[in-house]
UniProtKB/TrEMBL annotation:
Native organism taxonomy: Eukaryota, Metazoa, Spiralia, Lophotrochozoa, Mollusca
Signal peptide: 1-15
Key words of the record: Signal
Protein name, UniProt field: Uncharacterized protein
Alphabetical list of InterPro entries matching this protein: Ependymin (IPR001299)
Highest taxon of the lineage: Eukaryota
Pfam family of the protein (one): Ependymin
Amino acid sequence: MFVLLVCALLTVAAADECRCTPNQWEGDMGLVLGSTYAGNTSLTEGTMQISYDAVKKMIVTRQSLMYNNIPVQQTIIEDFTNGISYTVTAQGCSSKALGPWIPNCIPSNATTANLRYGLGDNSVDARSYMVDYGTFMVYFAVTADTCVPVAEDVTGTFDGAQIMEVITFANIKAGISDSNVFAIPANCPTQNSVPLPGVNRRASMFRGYV
């Protein structure tokens, strides 16, 4: 799944490894997601800017996507404290109930391998992980010292759909440069924070719920 320079034997994640991503970070993501459901196929591809704040328990993704060749410009604001996910577009804002906060931490049952990304001196030590969720598998890589996201693949069956998702990360920076990114637009409706069936599961390690 990942381009590797050096790879060791797979082992259970060691206790001395970093376990969670930084509490606050932001950066760019590239996304390709193919899925098949009830005989219908779909393709989503594009870029996203993500702001992750474990202190506020909020994740924001500003998305510029193509869904089956249809352009999609939207911002997803996940407010886990209040249990609400907002979708903001040029047409307005909608909301839905959100599942519980799940920190971006490596599961204890993940298998891992050491690797290097890059070429020569222009490279970084990293670790790849594989997590088996039964109906789907998640493969992801983070920097070895600080658990900064590098890449992620998801493949298998999720909520009845056959999916394959590839995510790459770039320009990751610690902290949040502008806290206003988490502001909820005034036209967004409020929602009773009762989780809906299925929303307490997610396929991605890093970008909240699908």
